[in-house]
Amino acid sequence: MDFLNNILRFPLEELPFVLIVLVIAFTVHEFSHAYFAYKFGDPTAKLLGRVTLNPAVHFDFLGVLLLVIAGFGWARPVPVNRDNFKNPRLMGVVVSAAGPLSNFVLGIIGALVYAILIATGVLDGITNERLLFAITTFLRYFCFMNFFLFLFNLIPLPPLDGYRIVEDIVPPRVRVKLQQFEQWSIFIFLLILFIPVLQMYTISPLYMWANSINYQFVFSFLKLFGVSI
């Protein structure tokens, strides 16, 4: 057990809740990409069965494993053919942004549910400690992980959504130059993974910002419900 706690990013007793949250967050994220791509005229994801909320088709074992161990990861990317869009660059930005924004919305929903349970006294009324632990742990990770994935996926490195957004915004000549460096992206992620100093200035701040966003929404909702903090 000590060995697992040493290599995992999250406490072992909380890992089941982390995995459940990741399944939901990744599924909604990839579904959002696929849905908007299909609605904008690209049938690629639809033909591959990706316009679905079935977690099995979006699951990437390595991506989830890295997130559990290193603190960052991914699901199976949704293939998008921008040539099928009427306005490839604009619609490409929307499709790329749909995934992170879906996580942001999920985080807000989780914060709202958490605030409602506090404001109505439901959490205070739960006497079963294990049940209380399960509910609070799930909601805490649900909010935090979705806000983290929102921030993480906006990093402008391939294959993340932030890079695809930048790729669609910049002029074509700049895009060609950017594409020359895509092959090095995996090495950049490995450097972040194995060099603590780099992680301190890349992934760690995202964790702090995700926590901050989470607290701000929960506190704002509690204030809205008339609950003093």
UniProtKB/TrEMBL annotation:
This is Zn-dependent protease. Residues 18-195 form the Peptidase M50 domain. GO terms for molecular function: metal ion binding; metallopeptidase activity. The chain crosses the membrane at residues 15-36, 57-75, 95-119, 131-155, 184-203. The keyword Coiled coil does not apply. It is found in: Cell membrane. Its cofactor is Zn(2+). One of its GO terms (biological process) is proteolysis. The keyword Cell membrane applies. It is a multi-pass membrane protein. Keywords: Cell membrane, Hydrolase, Membrane, Metal-binding, Metalloprotease, Protease, Transmembrane, Transmembrane helix, Zinc. One of its GO terms (cellular component) is plasma membrane. Pfam families: Peptidase_M50. Belongs to the peptidase M50B family. It comes from Paenibacillus rhizosphaerae. The lineage of its organism: Bacteria, Bacillati, Bacillota, Bacilli, Bacillales. Its main location: membrane.
